[in-house]
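Re: the pair you flagged

First of the two:
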Amino acid sequence: MSAESQGTNMESAASVAKREQVMKWRNPFKRMLDNPVILKELRGRMRGKQAFVLLTVYLGAIAVLIGVIYVFMADRSSYGGWDPSFRQSVGKSIFGAVVLLELLLVSFIGPGLTAGAITAEREHQTFDLLRTTLLSARSLVLGKLGSAFMYLFLLILTALPIQSLAFLLGGVGLGEMVVASLMLVVTALFYCTLGIFFSSFMKRTLNATVTSYGAIVLSFLFIVIVFFVIAYIESLPYDRGPVRDFLLNMFVWLLISTNPFLAAIMSEVILVEEQSLFITSNMPFGNTPSYFLSPWIIFTVIYLFLTLLMIVLSIYRVKRPDR
């Protein structure tokens, strides 16, 4: 065999190996897009008016909020002037308000997109037909979840240019942008999974929707009640110790980290006051320094774990035969 043919064979082998490596990265995405449920749900969702109306209302609400904040800050600037520090405060105010509003809208829209994912199939009497096909329970659940999450992800992406207006004014760094986007994506995934979780256990769409939003409201009320109880206990005269302060700080920190709004606010406060994205030492109770992870890290870990758990339970419930 000549040297030229050997070189050609080596080049072709290298190209094949490179192509296989590229396909190895593409295969997960290809398998996800090959899911017939995802394709059907996305085509049905994007061909109707509801998706574009919701997108318009979503962006309109964010734009109106930014306009109100900007007008309010511009009115204040007539007294204090547009100095650099004031512009930075305006940028931070716009960015923080937009992120909190997005968290609120994502928390409200997510369960509504998936609460009828499985129950609608039962109500339309197509669930038994789906179970007789080659489509597995995992493909069905992940397909319904994937289509809803992709739409919410689209909403988050479309709001990024509006968020970037804060960069023109200053006061917002790349780290804040990345953390805020990560929290939005995790929140969207969690609330979409919450809706499909209740949808897999309920028989009616209305029951699944009410239960999903009821669970969200109860979680907020639980946090408020616990904070009131802690404030009342702290007002009572009794001996305090470092161990008690540490345990109380850990409990309160975990409680804050389980709420997307509180986690986002406290993470921003830590970043502004301590210039840290990952660790904080300022605790609300006691004078002994205690080092804890920033709430957005704990929030991400807890919500991803709960999301995975609800997906597994939903697949098990869909796979289980009705009795």
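Second of the two:
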Amino acid sequence: MSKNDIKSHCNTCGPDREHLILHHEVENWGDDHDDVSGSTIFQMVKCGGCGAISLRREVWCSEYYDEEGHPESSVEYFPPRVFRKLPAWHSELQTYKKQELTVSDLLQEVYVALQNDLRRLTAMGIRSLLEHIMIDKVGDKGTFQKNINEFASSGFISKLQKGFLETALEAGHASIHRDFKPNVKTLISLIDISESLIQTLYIHERQTEEIRAVTPVRKNKK
């Protein structure tokens, strides 16, 4: 790797890929009164694999240290770093009726919030997504709990899944009303729960209909 190259993240190829530095700018700053200094490094980089171009911003401050006492910097990417991609089946939702399109839009907005580290908004978006799914299937019964109860009693989820759903909805509620800021691991778990529900109620339902349509009907024995 030459001095004009750097290891950087690529949304297509993955993390720590070799990038060519197209442009490099440094802004230094300092506060003599408080004896604090720092710098911001801007780098326009091009992936050596797919050729995608992005902006890398690294911020260093003399007050930032890791747990071992070493100087630490923070790095941001524009467009934001994608560490989780939309599921492969997501595009299938965009070919269905209006309700499925709304589910698709809400899921995409959840991912946008996640990639930009808007953790409270991600949890709120997941809550909205789950509420929409329940109302789509059983109608609006007036409260979250009534919607969940009807959703379960109508057979859309099992008793175990009802507990998962209540936990996910409560996390979103806490983000709105109790200043809860979930960590990334928690958000990934919430998205896993949501996507499992979407896949079961929309994707698998349509796939089952397609399988049933092409499966030969059993002939009655005479």
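The longest strand covers residues 14-31.

-B.
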